[in-house]
Write a structure and sequence with these properties.
CATH superfamily of the largest domain: TonB-dependent receptor, beta-barrel domain
Helix content: under 10%
Distance between the termini: 27 Å
Oligomer: single chain
CATH class of the largest domain: Mainly Beta
Number of helices: 10
Radius of gyration: 28 Å
Structural class: mainly beta
CATH topology of the largest domain: Maltoporin, Chain A
CATH architecture of the largest domain: Beta Barrel
Length: about 800
C-alpha cells in the first residue's frame, strides 16, 4: 500500500497540470487552484486512509463559490480533492452544516452544480456529470423535509450568513423567525460557531461583540449587566434575558453559553416583540435560543483551560430516535474549577442541560431543562465613588479587594415546555409555559466605597440570602393569508408573567478598610446567616398583543403594525413584619410601526417607531404626594436604516432616537418630569471581505443627554456610563499555507464615561487587543479543533465601564484561554 505522500507524487501529470498550471489563469482562478492544491498536499490522504475516517464528520461550510467550498471540505474532512478550478468558476455551493458521512457530504455540497465526485488513486476527482444522466438522476436524494405554514418551528433557525459568525435573521417574538432583510429593526444573532470559537463562557462575553452593547459588570463578580444603546439592561434585579422568547426562564444573574445555540441582540424597545421585560425594556433586549436536538447525530467533547488555573470540560450529545426520527434528545454538560486570573479568587461552575423534542406531521413540541451552579470564593465587587473626588487610576486587573473568606453560591433551575400545532396549512396555534428558580447565598461587601484618589476603600461585609421564583405562560395564533394583492402575516398572543423575590440579610459590626492597589486581608468575620427568607416583593404582568405584517410586490414593501396592552401589578412587603408597604396596579398600551422597502433585492430600507415599557414610580415617603402611583413609563424610539447584502458581506447603517421619561423630586413634589434622550448612529459589517477572511465589525456614535432634570447642575449633562464612541473590529484569516489553520484578532475601543450625573467624575476611554489562533485537523480519524486566545494582550489596567448606579468596573488582566474540541 502506497503512502499518501507517494500517491501525491505519482498523481497523473495531466491532473496535476489541470489543477495547478495554466497560462490562461486569472489571478483569482490561480489563487483558487493553488489553495485547492495546497490543501491536497497538506491534508492528502489516500484512499486507504479515507476509509479509516469516522462515519460522520462535523462540517461548518458556508454557502459560496464552489471552489472555496471544496477547499474547506478538504480541510475539514482530511481528504484530497483534485479539481480544475477554471471549470468551476462562477459556480456556487449551498454549503454544508452538520455531521455527515463523506459521500453524503460530497453530494450535498455539489448539488445543483452539474458535477460529480469520483474516488481515484490520486484522491477524489471532480468531473462533469455524465451527459446521459438527466437532471433528476444527477440530483442527490435528500431527506424528507416537512413544510408547513408556520414561520417559527422549534429548532428551525434562520440560516448562518457567509462566514458562519452571525445568522441571517433572528427570532423576533411576535414577528417569528425573520430574515435580516425583512426585519423593520436592527438586530444581531450570534451563532454557536462564534460562541465556541471565541471560547466565551457567558452571554456577556458574546454580546459585547456588538459596539451598541457594553458590559456593566466584570467576570469575577456574580452577575452580568449591560448597556444597549446607552440604556441599562439587567444589573441583577431580575432575569432580563429571554429564553427562547420567554422571560423568567433563563438563569437570573448570569447565563452560561454551553447550552446556547444563538444569542440574539434586538436593538431598541422590545415591549411589543417579547412583552415588557421584568425591569423594563428601553435600549434593547437579549434573547437566547437553546441548543435543540440536531438533524444529524452529534458527539462532541471540549476540554478547556483559562488562566490562572481554571480547568474544565464540556460534553455535547445529540440523538434522534423513532422510525421517522421524530423524537430527539440533546444533552449538554460542563464543569469547570480552579483559580481565576484575579488574586485570591477561585470558581467552580457546573451546568446540566437537557433538551427533548418531537416532530410530527402537524404537532411539534420541545422541553428544555437547565441546572446551572456557580460558586465563587472572593467574588469581585464594583466600588462606588465618594462625591467630590476624582476617579483614581485603575489598579492592576489581578488585584482584588474582596476578602479570601467571602463567597457567593448561586444555583439556578430552568424549565420550558412548548408545543405548536398546525390547525391548517396556514394557521398555527402554539402554547408555552416556563419557570425559573434562583437561590443565592453570599457573604461579601455589597457596595464598597472609594474614599479618595489614593484608592482607599471602605467595605462592610454582609450575609445575604435570596430566593427568586419566576414563571411565564403564553398562547398564540399565527396565520398567513391574502386579501387581494396584499399578503398578511398575523400573530395574536396572550401572555402572563410573575415573579416573587425573597430576601434576608445580616451585616458585620465593623467595616473593613482596604486599598485597590494594595489590598489588605483580614481575619474572617462572623456574620450570621439569615435563617428565614421572607417575601419582599411580588410582580404580575399580563398582556394581549396583535401584530400584522402586510406585504406587497413579492415582499418588496412590508408594513408591520402591532399593539400590546399590558397590565402591571406589583406589591412590596416589609422584610421584618411581612406587612404590605406599597402596591402598584397600572396598565399601558405600546404600539409598533415598522416599514421595509426593497428597491433592489439586496438593499433594504427600513424605519420604525417602537415603544418600550417600564414600571412607573411610586412617590417616596418624603414627598408631599407620598404613595401616589404613576403610570408605566413609555419610552419612544424612532429609527431609520439601510441594510445591504453584498452576497458574502453585509452592512447596516442606522440612525435612532430614544426618549425615556423618569420621575424626580422637585421641592416636596414628586412628578414625572425627568427625561433622558439618546441619539445615535450605528454601523455593522459582517461576513467575508475576501475568500478565507471574515470580519465582524461595528461602530456606535451616541449622544446620551439628560434633557429634563430638576437641577441646573445636571440639566443637559451626559448620562452615567454611556460613552460617545464605541467600536469593535474582529478578523479571522484561514491560511492557505497550512489548511485548517486560522488566525484571529479583535480590537475594542470604548470612549470616556461619566460616573455621576453632574459629570464631575469620569473614567478615560480605552482600547483592548485580543489575538488568537485555531487549528482544525483529523486526529485518529476524528475531527479535532485546537484553539488559543489571549485577551488583553498588552495587559492594560483600566476602568472598563460604569454601571447604572455609578459602580466602577475593573478590566480583566491578560487572560489565556485554551481549548480542544473533538467529534467522536
Amino acid at each position: 500500500m502506497k503512502s499518501p505522500t507517494k500517491e501525491l507524487l505519482t498523481m497523473p501529470a495531466t491532473v496535476a497540470k489541470a489543477a495547478l498550471f495554466s497560462t490562461r489563469l486569472s489571478p483569482l482562478a490561480f489563487a483558487a487552484r493553488l489553495s485547492l492544491a495546497t490543501s491536497f498536499a497538506l491534508t492528502g490522504f489516500g484512499s486507504a486512509q479515507a476509509q479509516a475516517l469516522a462515519p460522520h464528520t462535523q462540517y461548518e461550510i458556508p454557502a459560496g463559490p464552489l471552489a472555496e467550498a471544496l477547499n474547506r471540505f478538504a480541510q475539514q474532512s482530511g481528504v484530497a480533492i483534485v479539481v480544475d478550478a477554471n471549470k468551476v468558476q462562477g459556480l456556487r455551493s449551498p454549503g454544508l452544516h452538520g455531521s455527515y458521512e463523506l459521500d453524503e457530504g460530497f453530494n450535498l455540497l455539489l448539488r445543483g452544480s452539474g458535477y460529480v465526485i469520483a474516488k481515484t488513486a490520486a484522491g477524489y476527482v471532480l468531473s462533469p456529470a455524465p451527459k446521459s444522466q438527466d437532471a433528476a438522476s444527477t440530483t442527490p436524494t435528500l431527506p424528507a423535509v416537512l413544510v408547513t405554514a408556520s414561520a417559527d418551528l422549534p429548532g428551525d433557525l434562520p440560516k448562518p450568513y457567509a462566514g458562519g459568525q452571525l445568522a441571517r435573521g433572528a427570532r423576533l417574538g411576535m414577528l417569528g423567525n425573520t430574515d435580516m432583510m425583512d426585519a423593520p429593526l436592527s438586530s444581531t444573532s450570534y451563532t454557536a460557531q462564534t460562541i465556541q470559537n471565541q471560547q466565551v463562557r457567558t452571554v456577556a462575553d458574546v454580546v459585547v461583540n456588538d459596539a451598541s452593547v457594553r458590559a456593566a459588570s466584570q467576570s469575577g463578580g456574580i452577575l452580568d449587566a449591560f448597556f444597549v444603546r446607552g440604556f441599562p439592561v439587567g444589573n441583577g434585579n431580575l432575569g432580563e434575558i429571554a429564553f427562547d422568547g420567554f422571560y423568567g426562564v433563563a438563569p437570573n444573574y448570569r447565563v452560561g453559553t454551553d447550552y446556547v445555540e444563538r444569542v440574539e441582540v434586538i436593538k431598541g424597545p422590545t415591549a411589543l416583540i417579547y412583552g415588557m421585560a421584568p425591569s423594563g425594556s428601553v435600549g434593547g433586549g437579549i434573547n437566547i435560543v437553546p441548543k435543540r436536538p440536531a438533524d444529524k447525530d452529534l458527539s462532541q467533547f471540549t476540554a478547556d483551560y483559562a488562566s490562572a488555573s481554571q480547568l474544565g470540560g464540556h460534553l455535547d450529545l445529540s440523538r434522534r430516535f423513532g422510525e421517522d426520527r421524530q423524537f430527539g434528545m440533546r444533552f449538554n454538560g460542563s464543569y469547570r474549577s480552579g483559580d481565576t486570573a484575579q488574586d485570591k479568587q477561585s470558581r467552580q461552575a457546573g451546568v446540566g442541560a437537557l433538551a427533548l423534542d418531537y416532530r410530527g406531521e402537524r404537532l411539534r413540541a420541545t422541553v428544555d431543562y437547565v441546572n446551572q451552579q456557580e460558586n465563587i470564593d472572593a467574588p469581585s465587587r464594583l466600588p462606588r465613588m465618594t462625591a467630590g473626588i476624582a476617579v483614581p487610576a485603575a489598579a492592576d486587573g489581578r488585584r482584588n479587594t474582596t476578602q479570601p473568606w467571602e463567597y457567593a453560591k448561586v444555583e439556578d433551575q430552568s424549565l420550558l415546555l412548548r408545543a405548536e400545532y398546525d390547525l391548517t396549512d396556514s394557521t398555527t396555534w402554539s402554547v408555552g409555559a416556563g419557570a425559573g428558580r434562583t437561590h443565592v447565598d453570599r457573604l461579601f461587601a455589597t457596595s464598597p466605597v472609594l474614599l479618595n484618589t489614593a484608592g482607599d476603600v471602605s467595605a462592610l461585609p454582609s450575609n445575604f440570602r435570596f430566593n427568586i421564583d419566576r414563571a411565564s405562560v403564553d398562547t398564540s395564533l399565527r396565520s398567513q393569508f391574502a386579501t387581494a394583492s396584499v399578503h398578511h402575516s398575523v400573530s395574536f398572543q396572550v401572555s402572563a408573567y410573575q415573579d416573587r423575590l425573597g430576601r434576608a440579610s445580616n451585616s458585620a459590626a465593623t467595616a473593613l478598610a482596604t486599598n485597590i492597589y494594595q489590598p489588605i486581608d483580614y481575619a474572617p468575620q462572623t456574620v450570621a446567616t439569615p435563617l428565614v427568607v421572607p417575601k419582599v416583593s411580588e410582580t404580575h404582568l399580563t398582556g394581549v398583543a396583535l401584530a400584522d405584517t402586510l406585504s406587497i410586490l413579492d415582499k418588496r414593501v412590508q408594513l408591520t403594525l402591532g399593539l400590546r396592552h399590558q397590565k402591571i401589578e406589583s406589591d412590596n412587603f416589609s422584610e421584618t413584619t411581612g406587612a404590605t408597604t406599597s402596591q402598584y396596579a397600572k396598565s399601558a398600551t405600546t404600539p409598533m410601526l415598522g416599514l421595509v422597502v426593497k428597491p433592489w433585492q439586496n438593499i433594504s430600507l427600513y424605519a420604525n417607531r417602537i415603544e418600550g415599557l417600564t414600571k412607573g414610580d411610586t412617590a417616596p415617603g418624603t414627598a408631599s404626594n407620598a404613595g401616589v402611583v404613576f403610570a408605566p413609563y413609555k419610552s419612544k424610539q424612532y429609527e431609520l436604516g439601510v441594510k445591504i447584502d453584498h452576497g458574502r458581506l453585509s452592512t447596516t447603517l442606522s440612525a435612532f432616537e430614544i426618549k425615556k421619561p423618569s420621575g424626580q423630586l422637585t421641592g416636596s413634589l414628586f412628578s414625572v418630569e425627568g427625561e433622558q434622550r439618546n441619539r445615535g448612529l450605528e454601523y455593522n459589517l459582517f461576513g467575508e471581505i475576501l475568500p478565507h477572511i471574515r470580519v465582524l465589525a461595528s461602530a456606535s456614535l451616541l449622544d446620551a443627554k439628560l434633557t429634563r432634570t430638576n437641577s441646573a447642575s445636571t440639566q443637559g449633562k451626559t448620562a452615567v456610563g454611556v460613552p460617545s464612541v464605541q467600536a469593535n473590529l474582529g478578523l479571522e484569516w484561514d491560511t492557505s499555507f497550512v489548511p485548517g489553520l486560522t488566525f484571529t484578532g479583535g480590537l475594542v475601543h470604548t470612549g470616556k464615561q461619566y460616573a455621576n450625573t453632574d459629570n464631575t467624575q469620569s473614567i478615560p476611554g480605552w482600547r483592548r487587543l485580543d489575538l488568537g489562533v485555531r487549528y482544525a485537523t483529523q486526529l485518529a480519524g476524528r475531527t479535532t479543533t485546537y484553539r488559543l486566545l489571549v485577551r488583553n494582550v498588552a495587559d492594560k489596567s483600566y476602568w472598563a465601564s460604569v454601571d447604572a448606579y455609578g459602580g466602577l468596573v475593573q478590566a480583566d488582566p491578560r487572560t489565556l484561554l485554551l481549548s480542544a474540541t473533538v467529534n467522536f
